[in-house]
Amino acid sequence: MNFELSEEQIAFQSMAYKFAIKEFSPIAKECDREEKYPREIWQKACAAGLVGVVIPEEYGGPGGGWLETALITEQLSRVDLGLGLVATAATFGSENILNFGSEEQKKKYLPLLPLGQAIFAGAYTEPNAGSDVAGTTTRAIKDGTDYVINGSKTFITNGTICDYMVVLCVTNPDAPKKTLRHSLILVEATSPGLTRYKLEGKMGIRASDTGSLSFEDVRVPQANLIGQEGHGFPQLMHFFDMTRIMVASQAVGLAQGALDLALKYVKERKTFGVPLAANQGIQFQLAEMATRVELARTITYKAARKADNGQLDASLNAMAKYYSGETAVWVTDKALQMHGGYGYMDEYDIQRFYRDAKILEIYEGAKEIEKITIAKRLF
Q1: CA distance 324 to 256
Q2: What is the number of other CB atoms lying within 10 angstroms of the CB of residue 218?
Q3: Which of 20, 69, 120, 350 is placed for a possible disulfide with 79 were both Cys, Cβ 3.0 to 4.6 Å?
Q4: What number is the average pLDDT over the span 145-166?
Q5: What is the mean pLDDT of residues 150-157?
Q6: Helix, coil or strand: residue 122
Q7: Rg for the chain, CA atoms, rounded
């Protein structure tokens, strides 16, 4: 296996990191404190070619792969996870159109994303159906040439700022299998009967928009069905298998960023007259942190390469997401401890990294779900 990146991929990596340093660093604290979604960052990221990387050139995208997406996501998350999501999650949900949509849907919606003309959301999670995706109860009933949607969703990334959302609905309630009762339907965010509420008070990723949605007799043309009716659940599982690579790369980036902060601090901070970095106990911890970050990076890149080669490995992707998320939480904890009391203060960025890290073990499939996915494929 070739572990080397191409010159183009290294350029992607470098460009993304420089973008994050320039654009994220000056506003990261403000956006975190005020729970502010900076739309201008999304626009700049689109202009820089950092949004919608996997969208093929024929639909107006860069035509990159999942490895390029992972490289960009890692470098943005290395500086600030919440602001990284402002850029990379702007396409969230549109992957279903790329994977299963009609040619007409692809030509109409996908070009809007890299141009900065639309933001997507994936409306899947419900108040009583988090990890139990098949337990979704939002209904879409046929009426003439439309679907009429009723129900609610919560914890929706880009929920209050998106232009379009892909909604998981029950369309075939009498299907014998629970996993064949749902469909994915594209809904315009301005549709009458759709109410959106911003969720405030999140522990982390506060720059990223998260909302709750209420559907009351929302009419959508049946032409907005994505893929086959009744196949929404397997389509969504495929979607998660792919996007877990993105979450794993977020975790790698955040963990690397926390390690960067720890290294900087221990070289500058003196105790008992010498830099903390001279303490062998500190050195041992840094060595273990660096090793875990590199292991997480390696498994994430491997998962991305396999996806790009048409060898999508659901188990490997789950491993990457589970291990990288746990690594991010562990590394940020160690990095904050090295900062001592200063790390507990808002003035120091490490406390934001610490708060941001936990979501990586929860969203896009909690780590317990990843373990179930892995275990099922062991037998």
Answers
A1: 11
A2: 24
A3: 20
A4: 97
A5: 97
A6: strand
A7: 21
Percent of the chain with pLDDT over 90: 92
Q: Is the dihedral of CA 110, 114, 115, 116 positive or negative?
A: positive
pLDDT at 122 over 80: yes
Which helix (H) or strand (E) segment holds residue 369: the answer is: helix 367-376
pLDDT band at 128 (very low <50, low <70, confident <90, very high): confident
Of 204, 170, 265, 195, the residue nearest 28 (C-alpha): 204
The span from the CA of 351 to the CA of 33, in Å, is: 12
What's the token pair of residue 155? 């914890």
- Separation of alpha carbons 247 and 81, rounded Å: 10
Tokens 């032409």 -> residue: 223
Catalytic residue numbers? Answer: 364
What gap in Å lies between CA 214 and CA 308, rounded to an integer?
A: 37
Instruction: Give me the sign of the Cα torsion angle 25, 28, 29, 30.
Output: positive
In degrees and rounded to multiples of 5, residue 204 shows phi and psi of -140, -170
Q: Please, are residues 113 and 54 in contact by the beta-carbon 8 Å criterion?
A: no
Given this model, what pLDDT does residue 129 score?
78
Convert the pLDDT of each residue in 30-53 to its tens digit.
999 999 999 999 999 999 999 999
Tell me the mean pLDDT in the region 263-284: 93
| CA pair distance 25, 274, nearest whole angstrom | 29
58 three-state secondary structure: helix
User: What letters, b where the CB count within 10 A reaches 16 and e where it falls short, cover 142-177?
Assistant: eeeebbbbbbbbbbbbbbbbbbbbbbbbbbbeeeee
Q: How many residues does the chain have?
A: 379
Task: Assign 364 a pLDDT band (cuts: 50, 70, 90).
Answer: confident
Do 255 and 331 contact (CB within 8 A), yes or no?
yes
With a cut of 80, say whether residue 131 has pLDDT above it: no
pLDDT at 192: 98
Nearest to 159 by CA among 202, 197, 113, 109: 197
CB 142 within 8 A of CB 170: no
